[in-house]
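R.M. (postdoc): so does anyone remember the format we settled on? I'll just put the structure tokens first.
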């Protein structure tokens, strides 16, 4: 079995002439946290903005309803908030709120 001869990719470089080589940069010294904070203050950086409180996560609604169809609707944030608020106040799933709203709409249209 013949092994192919591999070319030397750096063989064309002139290794006798070191004038074109760039020296490796010297590593920066590690600063302590206090030194870093002092330099940041001197440069005008603040300690950072205060963290804004995240809104309280809504309690998940898990109901066994037998409903298996999904309806995707674009609505304003206010409408979605009202919809969720009504479901929370009544203690019913979102599908039940939709069904009651449709019933009321049909009744009002008659």
């Amino acid at each position: 079995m013949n092994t192919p001869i591999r070319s030397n990719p750096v063989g064309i470089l002139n290794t006798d002439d070191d004038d074109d080589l760039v020296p490796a940069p010297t590593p920066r010294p590690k600063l302590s946290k206090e030194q870093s904070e002092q330099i940041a203050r001197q440069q005008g950086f603040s300690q950072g903005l205060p963290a804004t409180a995240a809104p309280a996560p809504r309690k998940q609604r898990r109901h066994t309803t037998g409903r298996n169809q999904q309806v995707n609707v674009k609505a304003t944030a206010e409408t979605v908030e009202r919809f969720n608020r009504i479901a929370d106040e009544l203690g019913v799933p979102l599908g039940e709120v939709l069904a009651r709203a449709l019933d009321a709409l049909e009744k009002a249209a008659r």
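R.M.: ...and that's the designed sequence above, right after the tokens. Also worth knowing: The CA atoms of residues 46 and 52 lie 16 Å apart. Residues 72-110 form one domain.
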